[in-house]
Amino acid sequence: MDCFPYGASFTEMTSTSSVHPILVIGAPRSGTKIFREILRRHPGIVGPTYELERVWCYGNMDRYNMPLGPDDLSSATSTYIRNYFDRLARKNPGKRIIAKSTLLPLRIPFVRTIFPQAPILHIVRDGRDSACSIRDRHREPLELDYLLKHRVFPPLREAPHFLSYYLRYQLGKKLKRRTYVKTWGPQFEDMAELHKRYSTIEVCGIQWNRSVMGLHRFFYLLEEGPFLQIRYEDLVCHPTDTLTRVLGFLGLGCGSDVLEKMLDDVSKGQSGRWNSDLSQEDMDLLLPHILEGLTAFGYL
Fold first, then answer.
1. CA–CA separation, 222 vs 161, rounded Å?
2. Taking the domain 8-140+180-296, which CATH number applies?
3. Could you tell me how far CA 160 lies from the centroid of its own chain?
4. How far is 170 from 176, CA to CA, in rounded Å?
5. Separation in Å, CA 269 to CA 34, 122, 199, 254, 294
């Protein structure tokens, strides 16, 4: 594979892209979706309503939902990803392109290599709340209507990888009488072992902690380009001040009527849910796995 390390030569090559998409990133169930949808209501911002995992994994479909680094980049992969956003920009002249991902926190050098000047918005949420919400997803079935609704199908050339993944899940569910999704969210090389060794709430905590600490490790790369971090709790509890700060960072303005529309359905309801959703036993199991991330991001 024609691979390039993270360094000046490859960064210079990729910086020729005329499009710098707004990238909303965060650990799973940290508010990336609602954050993206709020920003998409701005008249100057457009973007897909689904995650672009099949785009980011072009040429690496065997790494679907897994960490990616510069060694996973080929010139074809980088070109494909940049061209995808270039096409979106051509279809929407005068608009800023936005995309969100819960996998990019595990791929910071990868994404900064492709888009060294893309504004990155990181939304972080209390890991106890995120773990509660991740557990909800682990318990939900992965059915075809869900996949269609969320438009996660890859291009035809990558369809064999996707279909293999989906069929393996369905077969495993039937053989093991499994009614929940064991493979939801970020995946790691030791995922099977984690499920054997730990309870579901612990696996959820590990997914959250590895995501936020993966990002934390590469803060220096994030800050080489435009980067802003916000808290989910600030977005839902102080939405006007938080969004004004975000729009200022992006160099976008709007009137009070637009701001009100953007924040129309923001709710505080999901902040602090761990207090009622997690038992003491859950907390005893979970806390050792998320302590590092809670401390690093100021939640303890």
1. 31
2. 3.40.50.300
3. 24
4. 10
5. 13, 21, 26, 26, 21
Average pLDDT over residues 40-50: 93
pTM of the model: 0.85
Nearest to 204 by CA among 273, 135, 139: 135
Q: How far is the CA of 183 from the CAs of 66, 165, 169, 178, in angstroms?
A: 11, 10, 8, 12
pLDDT for position 218: 97
Residue 27 token pair: 């650990």
* Domain parsing of the chain, residue ranges: 8-140+180-296
> Shortest CA distance to 81 belongs to which of 49, 106, 104?
104
| Cα angle for residues 178, 183, 186 (degrees, 5° grid) | 160
pLDDT 10s digits, 76-135: 999 999 999 999 999 999 999 999 999 999 999 999 999 999 999 999 999 999 999 999
Q: What is the mean pLDDT of the chain?
A: 85
Measure the CA–CA gap between 262 and 38, rounded to whole angstroms: 5
User: Who contacts 3 (Cβ-Cβ below 8 Å, separation ≥6)?
Assistant: 70, 71, 72, 73, 74
- In angstroms, the Cα distances linking 221 to 146, 208, 297 are 35, 20, 17
Q: Is the pLDDT of residue 1 over 50?
A: no
Structure tokens at 184: 């939801």
Distance CA 147, CA 3 (A): 32
